[in-house]
Amino acid sequence: MIHDTGHEPHDWWSPRELDFYKEVTVDDGWLLCPCCKLVPRIWEFDNGSSTICGCRTNIYQRWSIHAESINHIYKRDGNLSNYDPDRLRKYWNRWVETGEVTYDNRGAKGDDV
After folding, report:
1. Structurally, how many domains does the chain consist of?
2. Which contacts (CB < 8 Å, 24+ apart) does range 43-52 have?
3. Most buried among 25, 68, 73, 82, by the most CB within 10 A?
4. Is residue 13 part of a domain?
5. Tens-level pLDDT at each residue, the chain (113 residues)
6. Residue 16 domain-assigned?
């Protein structure tokens, strides 16, 4: 399977210019990016969460997987029964395994994991 992020694979930039991204590990259940071979870093914020890895064009253009925020799920469903705090990891791992982008920050693209 070919994963085309549209970005060149790189190592992490140093110094770490995006220090608001949290490091995760393979031991936490995260798979390596098939392009740059790095475990992603994650950012959880008010409107959702996203990943970055070493696939980038520059500091502002990086490959990323997104997950919907708890607030958006509540507004859409009226409750939190569909919220999965592990959704971002599941979406990342699905992309690694299948090449499928499940969700982007413009809306859902597929079924829940």
Report:
1. 1
2. 43/18, 44/88, 45/69, 46/71, 47/71, 47/72, 47/105, 48/72, 48/105, 49/87, 49/88, 50/88, 50/105, 51/88, 51/92, 52/18, 52/21
3. 68
4. yes
5. 445 666 566 665 543 556 788 889 999 999 999 988 889 999 888 778 999 888 877 767 778 899 988 888 888 889 888 889 899 999 999 999 998 888 866 644 444 44
6. yes
